[in-house]
Design goal:
Elements: E1 4-8, H1 12-24, E2 28-32, H2 35-44, E3 49-53, H3 61-69, E4 79-83, H4 88-96, E5 101-104, H5 109-123, E6 131-134, E7 137-140, E8 145-148, E9 151-153, H6 157-167, H7 176-184, H8 193-206, E10 215-218, E11 222-225
Parallel strand pairs: 1-2, 1-3, 3-4, 4-5
Antiparallel strand pairs: 6-7, 7-8, 8-9, 10-11
Helix pairs in contact: 2-3, 6-7, 6-8
The protein binds calcium ion.
Residues 9-11, 53, 55-56 line the site of calcium ion.
């Protein structure tokens, strides 16, 4: 899968330029126009790298960076900070805040692409995650095989996608709407009860040996991959 880059920038022409060049270089992109929207988007769909502007409405780039570094789910998410200010002091603050690299505006698209490649290489992100594991469940994405312990689990394509979405975000509660967006695609209109039907099938396939249920139903909120039920 192509690396997913989240561009967090409030200047529309720059966003367009970045998007165009990133997609031309073989990346997928998402855009957030302020710091709060960036954190929401990251929770919904973890990118492989963030291009994060320093000056943003609602929450500054440096604050977004600090919050991500303090969050165990996103601690290692690669971040390249953008700034119009080239002062050494800001550079140091950016790197202390946890950014992996730093680029000063104005910059050329090819310079940014080169930096992105190098940060992705160093982080090992951007490589397809071929194998996901949660407790005794292993998902092999290259062969589309799922195992629980020694037992092979046979899933339909929808249950496979649903499990993939959950395995990428262990512990997180996802609403039925989010699950529909992520596992079925944003453009499909489906009843949210569809999610319940497929979660039931997925549970049945995963637990048919009487193993512990790893899917937690959160009343009024949705579902989470979480075996530690409280
Ligand atoms: Ca800005």
């Amino acid at each position: 899968m192509k690396p997913l880059i989240l561009v967090v920038e409030d200047e529309a022409p720059l966003v367009e330029m970045l998007r165009y060049n990133l997609e031309k270089a073989g990346h997928r992109t998402r855009v957030a126009q302020d710091g709060v929207a960036a954190l929401e988007q990251i929770d919904l769909e973890q990118p492989d790298l963030i291009v994060l502007d320093w000056m943003l409405p609602r929450l500054s780039g440096i604050e977004v960076c600090r919050r991500l570094r303090a969050d165990p789910f996103h601690q290692k998410l690669p971040i390249i900070m953008l700034t119009a200010r080239g002062e050494e002091e800001d550079r140091v603050r950016g790197l202390e805040g946890g950014a992996d690299d730093y680029i000063v505006k104005p910059f050329s698209p090819s310079e940014l692409i080169a930096r992105i490649r190098s940060v992705l290489r160093r982080s090992g992100a951007g490589l397809p995650d071929e194998r996901l594991q949660y407790r005794d469940i292993i998902m092999d994405l290259a062969t589309h095989k799922v195992k629980r312990g020694a037992r092979a689990i046979h899933l339909g394509p929808t249950e496979f996608r649903l499990l993939h979405v959950l395995m990428k975000r262990p512990g997180r509660v996802l609403s039925r709407g989010q699950l529909l967006d992520l596992a079925w695609g944003r453009d499909k209109y489906l009843d949210e009860r569809t999610v319940d039907v497929h979660v039931r099938r997925l549970r049945k396939a995963l637990n048919n040996d009487g193993q512990i249920d790893v899917i937690r139903t959160v009343r009024g909120a949705g579902y989470a991959l979480d075996a530690e039920k409280t």
